Amino acid sequence: MTSANDGTLSLQQFLPYRLSALANRISQSLAVKYSKQYGISVQEWRILAALGEETKLSAVGITNRIAMDKVAVSRAVKRLIEKDLIIKHLDDNDQRSHELSLSAQGVDIYQKLVPIALKHEQQVTANLTKKEKESLLKLLSKLDNAPL
Question: Where is the HTH marR-type domain (predicted)?
Answer without folding.
Answer: 12-145
